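Practice problem: predict the structure.
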Amino acid sequence: MASNAVDRSGGGRIALEKSCVLAQKFCVAHALSLDEFDHRLLAALQRDAAITLTALGDAVGLSASAVQRRLVRYRKAGLLRQVAVLDADLLPAVTLVAVWLQMESDRQPLHKAFRARMRAAPEVQQCYAVAGPWDYLVILAATGVAHYREIAARLFVDEGTVKRYETQLIFDVVKQGLALPTRAAPRGRK
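Answer:
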């Protein structure tokens, strides 16, 4: 954008380029630079978040204080959040539900409001914008089918922004994981 600007005064282009660079620092998410220790440390944490700093350090080849500094850096960057993940099978009154949704239109304010509603709803465990015939996949937890119907009415029907939705009850959790890859997959050989 700045490189196409016509500068008749001599200093306008430089000011525009600087303002664009400054704006990008606040508007564009920058990937956290990770070294080999970071990759190993994050993999160990994803396997067991309750592991001690000393055990983490031993596992990756760092001191406990070096591990602590890295954890602080991850938290400040927003990479690491700590939450408790409960096993739904061990709770007596949990009904997990997958809901596919198609929005009424593609207007951005409608999607922005829907996403805010999903983030605010305590029953929504996960919400994904997806490609294909559906716009979103929502995973939520209810205390039973009647409770799910109340949630669906509140989140998907009352606002009038959802064109249609399809509900699928989850019978068994075969695998539940939140682990993410920290590095790109190796390229295949030709």
